Every structure is written in C-alpha cells, then in structure tokens.
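Narrative progress, year one. The postdoctoral researcher (J.K.) led the effort to move from monomer predictions toward full complexes, under supervision of the PI. The following entry was the first complex the group processed end to end, covering 679 residues in total.
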Amino acid sequence: MTLDLFFQLLFAGITYGIIYAIVAIGFNIIYNTTGIINFAQGEFVMLGGMISISLLHVVPLPVAIFGAVLITMIVGALIEMVFIRWLDNPSVLRLIIITIGLSILIREVALHIWGESIRSLPYFYGNEITAVQFGSVRFSPQILWVIGVCGVVVAGLSLFFGYTSLGREMRACSANRRAAILCGINTRNMVTFSFMLSAGIGALAGCVMSPITYTQYDIGTGLALKGFTVAILGGLGNSMAAVAAGIILGILEAFSITIVPLAFQDAIAITLLLIMLFLRPHGLFGSKEAAGLKEF
Amino acid sequence: MLKKAILAVAAVGLLSFAGLQAAGAETIKVGAILAVTGGASFLGGPEARTLEMLVEEVNAKGGINGNKVELVIKDSAASTEKAISFAKQLIEEEKVFAILGPSTSGETFKIMKIAEDGKTILLSCGAAEQIVNPVAKYVFKTPQKDSFAVKKIYGEMKKMGISKIAVVAGNTGYGKAGKGQLLKIAPEFGIEVLATEVYDKKATDLSAVVAKLMANKDIQAVVNWSIVPAQAIIAKNMRQAGWDVPLFQSHGFGNIKYVEAAGAAAEGIIFPAGRLLVADILPDSDPQKALLLKYKKDYESKFKEPASTFGGHAYDAFMILAKAIETAGTDKEKVRDAIENLKKFPGTGGVFNFSAEDHNGLDMDAFVMLTVKDGKFVLYEGK
C-alpha cells in the first residue's frame, strides 16, 4: 500500500466515522435519561435533511437548517408526548418496540410527503467537485463542516450534562428514576426534553451530511444501524466515546476494502457489534460497574 | 395522491361502464402490477401515472375500436409474494384481458408461469434478458435488454481506445445482472476488467473504494451499474479525489434527478439510454420523435415532474397492447398473435419489431449514447 492510498483511506474512514458518531450521539442522549434505545433516531436524521431541503425553497440555507432543527425537535416532543409519556411505568422492552414502530411510521409518512426520490442540500462551500488538498489527500470541504458540527455538539453536550442543572437532572433520571422523583425532578418532562434534544441533534446531523450522503425517505435505517453499533462500541451514554468509536469503525471499514470486497463493509460493522455485545456489552470506554446498575 | 389516483381510476372505470351500457360495446379490463410504493417506486410510480394518463386519453377518444378500457392497478411494492397473489387475483377473479408490468425483473420471473398457465398476455416492464430468453408464449417485455447496453458501452470504449476498466455495481438484482453481462461480454470487445467491486444499495459514501481503484494506475475507465443514489455518489467521490478517467453508467442513470444530485460531478458521464431523454434534439426524420415529444409534454404538464424512461416502458406496454387489439379485435389469442406480428412500431424505448423468436422486439439501435453537459442530457458525440 502506498502512503498516498493509506492517507486517502484514513481520511475516508474518518469521514464515515464522524457521520456514524453524530448519529450515535442522538442515541446516547435518550439513553442517558430514559435508559432506552430510540430506534427512530435515524428517522430524525432523515427528517432534518428533508425538512431543510423543503424549507430551502423559501428561505436561505442557515434559516432552513435552523427551521428544520426546530421542526424536528417539535416532532420529537410530540412523539414522546403521544406515544410514551402517558405510559405507566413501561418496561424497557416495550419502549424499544414502540420506537421501532415509530421509525416505520415516520418512514412511511415521509414517503407520502416527499416521495421516493433522492434530494440533497447544496454544498455549504463550493460544489460537488470542490476538494480541499491536504498533502496528497483530497477531500470535500463539506467533511470539515461535519467534523466541526460534531465537535461543537460533543463539547456543548459535555458542558450541558456536566455543568447545568437541567443536564444534571436529566442524568439523574437515568441513574435512578425513583430517586430523581423523590428529589423533586419532573422525570416526565426530562424524558420529553431528551427526545427534543436528540431529535434536534439528529436533524442537525441530517442537514450537514445531506450534501455528502443525500437524503431519501429510508436513509434512516442504515444510519441508525451504524450509529447504534458505534454507540454500543463506545459505551452507551458517552458522547466523547461515541466519536472515538465512530472513527475506529469508520477507519476499519475504509481499510477493510484493501483486504475483503467492498460488499463486506457492512458485515464488519455487524460483526463488531455482535462481538462487543458478547464480550464487552458496556463498550470499549464504558465502565462495567456503571453498566451493571442499568436495567438495559 | 395515491388515493386521488385510485379514485380517478375508479371514476374512469365507472364512466367507461356507463358508456358501455349505452353503446353496447365490450369493456376491456386490463390489469397492471406495479411497484408504486417501496424500494422500486421510482419505476412503478411513473409507470402507474403513465397508464392512468393513457387510459383516460383512450377512453376520452371513445376507447379502442369503440371498446372502453378499464384499468386495474395493483401495488406490489416490489414484493414478489404480492406480485404472485395479484397475478392470480387478476387472472382468476378479475379475469383481465392482459397484465401490464410488473416493474421489476424479479417479480416478472415469479409470475411468468402464472400468466402462461392462465393464457394471459403479460407485457413486463422488467429489464432482464431472461424474461424473453427463452421465449414464453404469452410473455413480452418493453425495456431494452441489458446486454445491448453493455455492448453499446464497450463499442464506445473501443472507439476511445480504452481496454482496461474497473466495474462497480450495486447489490440489487439489476446491479448483479449488469455486472454479469459486463464480465461476460468484455472479452468479445478485447476489454480487460481489472477490478470489480459491489457496494450496498444503501451506500452513502464510496470514497474508500474510489481511493483503492485510483491507486491502480492501469485503469482507464470506470463502469458503474446500479439504479440507486450511489450512481451520483460515485461520480462525486471520483471527482473530489481528482480522478478524471471517463465514468460510464448504465441506462439506470436515465433520470435527471441523479444528474441534479451529482451536480457538477455529473458532467461528462457517458451512458446508454432510450431516446426519450433527448427527444427535443432528435432529427425530425426520427420515427420516435413525435410520440416522444407528445408523451413528454402530456406527462410533464399533467404530473409536474420530468418524464423518465421508466414511465416510457409502461407507455410502450400499453400502446403495444392497444395497437394489437385495434388490429385483432378482442380475442386474446388473436391479440397475442398480433403482438408477435407487430413490426416497425415506434415506442418510447425504440422501434419494436416483434417475432415468434423475439418477444422484446428491440435491437441495439434502441439505445443512443448520452452524456451530461451543463446539467442536461445531450447526445454523446465522441471525443
């Protein structure tokens, strides 16, 4: 392998990885407050992309993205209020199955609104063939946008969960729901809020990655699967770990094609997921003790 | 939208029923199995809309030889199981005169025998060559064969002096069939396939595979065979990586939406397609020109979306059936014979010349080589 190819693959891997990581972060937020995995997370990403593309017809790009994030957050909140909030002490399994149902529902609704065709936002800088040259490596400037957004989101979330009272209340809900209620925290509002937050982050991810990956009504499933793998790999609930795990998976996928055919790229993610679930269900960077306290 | 469409079809059906009472003529019931929703909806959607439009038009003119047409569209969502049960339902319960569709080759394979047993004419919109090879008595198809597309591409490569290529394909039925044909036919043209890669139909970025192929300096051109968004993604990734070898695509690229998606990266992509996409720049002597322009105009003004070659396949299926009924009356067997004897019949896919041995009726001439220039399809003139 030449050095050129090595760096080109490395960068392709980082691109994949960051995209997976930003989806994984959405999983982590809801997990952090409810202890469940929201399988409709990929659909939030799709909605973000689709809504911003529709809004772009009437407003400029930054406003379209802002609007899409806002609308998706409202959708996230509505979903939680209609389907989850009123359930009395639901089991984790039941909640997860509800989110799977929701993901199918959102997908079908999107198919009827936007149809089957692929769409995308324009590149934020340059166009489809613009490339940034970095040594011998060339890549699209859009990737820098994705990396930047991912960085800001991770930093923002760490500050939010670590230093604001709202963030700490959300974490308390996840650690021990009953204790949180006894402390006077309105756990139901916290859950609604976590759905809004993860919907918003998903939508933002959907907007920035849209020029690279395109947006189609069913793009969510594939992204959610990779995002889920990355979330597990890093250790559920930890955004920083998700980024590290995402980059690991992305680089593995990118380099895998020098050894096995491209068709096996997805098999690698699934194999990794299975190995992790068997050997280290608390993730590469998670702590076993902390995971042991969770219901799921 | 769908509901409206169904209502419209029902209304047309009722009207034609009323008309029939008055005139005392027969109503011809035509079934259609199309993937209106699901993964192949970009095929079935335009196909269903085209058929609705045509039936409305024919009935407004008083039907075929005074016989009104009733259209029954079944949405298979590209599922073979559904296609099978709809085929049985249409033949046994609805007792349709003929079946148009299915949209995909996979579904067609599963219902061919049902149509044969039911002695019902099947005009498929699937692309695979195996639908009409070997010939089944009642089975016809309207899209051009994929082997012709491959030959057309290789012919062009020879002219350009290209002999070493890479093949990439999506992991769909279409991609696999095309990859098979590309590998099989390559030696005939003295072309060497140095690398083949298959990607998932949901692939969102192909820069790693582009990097790998690009490292092989012997590759003079890339052929991509798929009907998924990756057609646009591979173009972008190649150009972003600064790799400027010619990129060839299959006839699945014949949808302007992919050109829009690939933007500047689509410029210069070369691919074979039917003449529909370049109807307005064809010479006036072209036998297809008039009907292509009419179909395009009618479709685009009615549905506010660009006409695609896929809707054209359904157009051809319906028009061939209508023409055969016009010449042979309403006897199924005679209509089947009439289709087989149809010669020099211009459609959107090409000029059809059916025979007892050829139930597709198109030759290599049905394809023209196109390229993308300034975001539009234009005829490829060579370098």
